[in-house]
């Protein structure tokens, strides 16, 4: 049926959009405090960007991308994650030639993945992400973890903890891969089909497989943390020192590898405990070679992504109440043939910066007041024949019923003053 949204998508209706706006405002403020500025990248990119950046052994590339040919027979993919597009934009715009680090964030960015819709993540969902290009020190990693942690905690999400790991770098990871593959080879027949497919090219992914048989088989697998090179070990220790100094709860979890091939060194997840078990709210890590893989200079980088739908779902579960703003500051009602006067007053109030409206449906005066009350407008301004003759309106505070008459030219200033005082002064 054409009047149904596609599976895995949903509308954000006017009655709930204020919740998204509230969340977006909090995220913008958190990003700005740490010096992150907004970037907006296209909804779709050339498919090669994700093949080279995300990695062709990932579930996203193998199973979940919305890929199609355009009219020029070019392969195009709807954005399945935010980092690759941000890195492409950073590179294409030569931002690496500016003062570094370059700190960027994206907000309410639509992300598309063809997978079974799940709690807090649909086939089209939306992310808040931060990307920091050109910073090699672990303080940059810690800064992002703290940004996400304090944002979520201040929003009202409780039982938060941070899981961190290091998955090494191109210098130390190949030797670990050999040792891990040797361990998995003796258990190969028991692995799921997906892990068997990834065995040669990316055995690390077996560590975060969600299949129970793979989790059991990898329980005693060797840890990357035991094989870190000096540079990776020092970086990971610096990160832990920063987090301890900040006083936030964290744990080292060697099974966190994240699902994207571009990660190096730090990977992290922010977890909250729910009645249904642990839920990942935010995930990220370091991707020191992504810009180079895309054809740019060798620059370190770190970032995270956070799903807006999942955050809103958790706020509901926590019972966090997001204040709903009223529709209008004032609703203009009219009697008789004074529709045009009401229209002109509405425009005047709007030009003065007040949220104002009037009846556009030909309702009776009684019905106009009923509708104004439904919108939550704290004030009404009524124009009848007498008011129209004197260029005035009868201002009414809806919560108390108190009234006074004001000139049209003074209406905006009077309403602002009355709103500040929250009382209706004596009439003139």
Write the SSE topology.
Layout: H1 17-33, E1 37-38, E2 44-46, H2 47-55, H3 59-64, E3 67-69, E4 75-78, H4 83-92, E5 102-112, E6 124-133, H5 138-155, E7 160-166, H6 173-185, H7 193-198, H8 212-217, H9 230-246, E8 250-252, E9 264-274, E10 277-286, H10 290-293, E11 301-307, H11 308-318, E12 330-334, H12 339-351, E13 356-358, H13 365-375, E14 379-383, H14 385-390, E15 392-397, E16 403-407, H15 411-421
Parallel strand pairs: 1-5, 7-8, 12-13, 12-14
Antiparallel strand pairs: 2-4, 3-4, 5-6, 6-11, 7-9, 9-10, 10-11, 14-15, 15-16
Helix pairs in contact: 1-5, 5-9
What would the keywords be for this entry?
428 residues; eight-stranded mixed β-sheet; 37% helix; 22% strand; elongated
């Amino acid at each position: 049926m054409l009047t149904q949204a596609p599976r895995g998508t949903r509308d954000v209706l006017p009655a709930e959009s204020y919740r998204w706006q509230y969340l977006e405002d909090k995220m913008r403020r958190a990003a700005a405090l740490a010096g992150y500025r907004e970037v907006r990248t296209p909804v779709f990119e050339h498919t090669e960007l994700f093949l080279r950046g995300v990695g062709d052994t990932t579930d996203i590339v193998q199973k979940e991308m919305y890929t199609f040919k355009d009219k020029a027979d070019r392969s195009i993919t709807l954005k399945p994650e935010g980092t690759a597009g941000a890195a492409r934009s950073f590179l294409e715009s030569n931002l690496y030639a500016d003062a570094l680090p370059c700190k960027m964030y994206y907000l309410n960015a639509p992300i598309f993945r063809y997978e079974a819709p799940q709690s807090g993540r649909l086939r089209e969902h939306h992310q808040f992400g931060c990307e920091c290009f050109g910073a090699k020190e672990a303080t940059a990693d810690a800064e992002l973890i703290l940004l996400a942690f304090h944002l979520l905690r201040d929003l009202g999400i409780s039982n938060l903890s941070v899981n961190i790991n290091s998955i090494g770098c191109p210098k130390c990871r190949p030797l670990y891969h050999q040792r891990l593959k040797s361990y998995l080879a003796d258990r190969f027949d028991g692995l799921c089909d997906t892990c068997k497919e990834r065995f040669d090219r990316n055995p690390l992914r077996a560590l975060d497989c969600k299949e129970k048989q793979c989790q059991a088989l990898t329980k005693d697998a060797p840890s990357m943390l035991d094989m870190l090179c000096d540079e990776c070990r020092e970086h990971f220790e610096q990160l832990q020192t920063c987090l301890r100094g900040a006083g936030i709860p964290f744990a080292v979890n060697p099974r966190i590898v994240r699902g994207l091939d571009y990660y190096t060194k730090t990977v992290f997840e922010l977890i909250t405990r729910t009645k249904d078990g642990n839920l990942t709210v935010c995930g990220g890590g370091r991707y020191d070679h992504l810009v180079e893989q895309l054809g740019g200079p060798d620059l370190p980088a770190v970032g995270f992504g956070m799903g807006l739908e999942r955050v809103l779902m958790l706020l509901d579960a926590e019972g966090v109440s997001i204040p709903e703003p009223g529709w209008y500051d004032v609703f203009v009602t009219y009697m008789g043939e004074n529709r045009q006067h009401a229209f002109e007053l509405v425009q005047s109030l709007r030009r003065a910066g007040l949220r104002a409206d009037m009846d556009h449906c030909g309702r009776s005066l009684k019905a106009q007041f009923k509708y104004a009350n439904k919108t939550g407008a704290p004030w009404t301004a009524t124009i009848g024949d007498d008011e129209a003759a004197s260029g005035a309106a009868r201002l009414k505070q809806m919560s108390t019923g108190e009234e006074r008459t004001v000139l049209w030219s003074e209406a905006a200033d009077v309403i602002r003053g009355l709103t500040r005082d929250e009382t209706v002064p004596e009439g003139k």
